[in-house]
């Protein structure tokens, strides 16, 4: 789930900026066109066509050169291990981060491919998806040298009392919104429903020491960050959330995005295939997966980022995700044992 500042779409870099950027490279040619890409909620991406080819131009909004350069080195090392990635193109001096006009850019090869959600994947493809994430986690452990400062304790599970306060605040905003529409009605219904759910299940807050094993993770593994060429993964993109977290939690979060149906249920047969492959590849045991399922379920039960975006920030880009995501929390709570068994069995 996004955890950064919201940035609304804006026009592509102007010709002067593109010329200054491309002069840094030996063989990219001159800019012909630069079109904003519609997909993605964070950062900005562009399809850049030049006289010598096509590229993906990424504008890193946070602009932390050290962190971005580390992400770049990681993808280069993962690529050497055979992980499908799209490492940045070094400039004439070997640098992969370019500061132009005070803004931070990186140039990547253009990958011909498309995104595929779990509904489009066959059972064998679900197996390969789970195995791919397991490979990512095991290869990250090979290429990263963890420092003590990297391995911070995971965030404590959400406190229900804090969540009740958020629900009350959002309810006031929803009920006061004018003109009222069907989204407002759904939001109010789900907020009231969630408060009742949380009151019934507050005692199930995960214990502080019930944390699955931590390790290096992609941090944002979902359909919009995985490109397929035909039926095979071509590139895992957007490594901005690279960090140390409970590994199995990333596997559970990803499945809850890949395999959610429009009505807010999970395709458990596909989840089971995906999770078995992940466990085999990453070496994650059933207890680790069960702890991850519980923590992610609790996280979803207490989370309202989509409504915060709409009602507190006036940003509606996540509105289309809300109906299924909100329904999933209710269904997951009701089918808790079946979901856990699909990940652990």
Characterize this entry briefly.
This protein is α+β, with helices and mostly antiparallel strands. Helix 4 (160-176) runs antiparallel to helix 5 and helix 5 runs parallel beside helix 10.
Based on CA atoms alone, the radius of gyration comes out at: 21 Å
Overall shape: it is: globular
Mean pLDDT: 93
- Side by side, the strands of the main sheet go 1-2-3-5-4
Q: How many strand segments?
A: 9
Major sheet characteristics = 5 strands, antiparallel
Helix-residue proportion: 40-55%
Instruction: Tell me the β content.
Output: 5-15%
Distance between the termini: 26 Å
* DSSP helical segment count: 11
Structural class by SSE content: alpha+beta
Q: Secondary-structure element order, as H and E?
A: HEEEHEEHHHEEEEHHHHHH
Low-confidence stretches: 1-9
List the helices and strands and how they pair.
Elements: H1 15-22, E1 31-36, E2 44-50, E3 53-60, H2 65-80, E4 98-100, E5 103-109, H3 123-143, H4 160-176, H5 182-201, E6 214-217, E7 226-229, E8 232-236, E9 243-246, H6 247-258, H7 268-282, H8 286-301, H9 305-313, H10 322-334, H11 336-344
Antiparallel strand pairs: 1-2, 2-3, 3-5, 4-5, 6-9, 7-8
Helix pairs in contact: 3-7, 4-5, 5-10, 6-8, 7-11, 8-11
């Amino acid at each position: 789930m996004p955890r950064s500042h919201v940035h609304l779409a804006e026009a592509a870099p102007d010709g002067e900026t593109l010329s200054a950027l491309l002069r840094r490279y030996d063989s990219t040619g001159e800019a012909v066109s630069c079109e904003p890409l519609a997909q993605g909620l964070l950062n900005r991406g562009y399809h850049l066509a030049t006289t010598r080819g096509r590229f993906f131009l990424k504008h890193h909004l946070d602009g932390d050169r050290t962190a971005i350069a580390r992400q770049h080195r990681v993808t280069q090392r993962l690529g050497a291990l055979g992980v499908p990635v799209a490492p940045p193109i070094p400039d004439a001096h070997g640098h992969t981060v370019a500061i132009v006009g005070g803004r931070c850019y990186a140039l990547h090869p253009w990958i011909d491919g498309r995104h595929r959600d779990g509904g489009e994947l066959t059972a064998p493809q679900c197996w390969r998806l789970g195995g791919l994430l397991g490979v990512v986690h095991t290869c990250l452990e090979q290429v990263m040298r963890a420092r003590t400062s990297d391995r911070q304790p995971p965030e404590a599970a959400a406190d229900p009392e804090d969540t009740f306060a958020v629900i009350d605040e959002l309810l006031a905003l929803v009920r006061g919104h004018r003109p009222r529409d069907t989204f407002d009605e759904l939001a109010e219904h789900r907020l009231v429903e969630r408060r009742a759910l949380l009151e019934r299940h507050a005692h199930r807050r995960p214990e502080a020491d019930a944390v699955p094993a931590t390790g290096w993770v992609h941090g944002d593994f979902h359909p919009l960050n995985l490109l397929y060429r035909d039926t095979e993964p071509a590139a895992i993109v957007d490594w901005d959330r690279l960090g140390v977290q409970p590994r199995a939690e990333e596997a559970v979060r990803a499945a809850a995005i890949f395999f959610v149906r429009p009505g807010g249920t999970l395709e458990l047969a596909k989840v089971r295939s995906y999770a078995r492959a992940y466990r085999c590849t990453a070496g994650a045991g059933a207890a680790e997966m069960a702890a991850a399922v519980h923590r992610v379920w609790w996280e979803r039960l207490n989370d309202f980022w989509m409504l915060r975006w709409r009602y507190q920030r006036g940003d509606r880009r996540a509105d289309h995700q809300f109906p299924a995501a909100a329904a999933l929390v209710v269904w997951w709570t009701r089918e808790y044992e079946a979901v856990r068994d699909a990940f652990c069995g």
